[in-house]
Amino acid sequence: MWGFGVVRIVTDSPADIPPVLAKELGIVVIPLYVRFGSEVYRDGVDLTPDEFYRKLVTNRSLPVTSTPAPGEIAQVYDTLAEETEEIVSIHVSSKLSATYEVALQAREQMKKKCRVELVDSMSGAMGEGLVVIAAAKEARKGTGLEQVANLAREAALKSHVYMCFDTLEFLRRGGRIGRAQALLGSVLKVNPIIGVKDGETHPYGRERSRARAIDRVFDFVKSLPSIGELAVEHASTPDEAEALADRLGGIFPRERIYMSRVAPAVGVHVGPHVIAVSALEGQ
Known about the structure:
With 283 residues, the chain is α/β, with parallel strands linked by helices. It has ten helices and 13 strands. It is globular and about 55 Å long.
């Protein structure tokens, strides 16, 4: 299916790309690790979202995430090098995770000859995922390595993520609070709205009710100058996500909206009740 001359796309599990879509587009997803005490799981491989969120609400201690070792990523590159000479590897924001830096080390450890272009998505969740999907679609056209990588970098500049939280405690404990620190101190009975801007978490406001917070997320998306791709994802509230997607269908073709689940590696930091919309500017 994938000819030798086709650029292959690699990403990490925080991109939240639906597995069926990743397979369809030939995207190779490298899982991060999620640790509950002494138990270690590969995100999306040994631990499903349902299993993870059940553990998250019942375990006393919060889980932590870790990146794969450089050698593990290098092995992925070497395996792909058997069928391609060019790889574009797109990763979660380097300000939110060490994965991008580990991928740089992995490229140096490769045993086989293959050109690997690394791209910092400057985002996470489907904000990263939409960048990866755009690159994969371009690669399928037979576009060259540098063009695909540059398209991904340009897409990263046009990617937006808006997340509605019921608490910032997971973000704070996970050390990913960033500029959203400004919203702490009033977390009770408040629904914060957090986005990713310039590669780190950014506060977009807070509302007393969840319904109003979701309204604000809708308004943020509606105010974008253009929408080329759109995704709605949730941690454990599928009906809420479907309702929001139906509403967004009034400003963007409903059948083109990607529906996704917040992966465990992201859920560690956002909690079990987050709902998010990611958008990629464009036509």
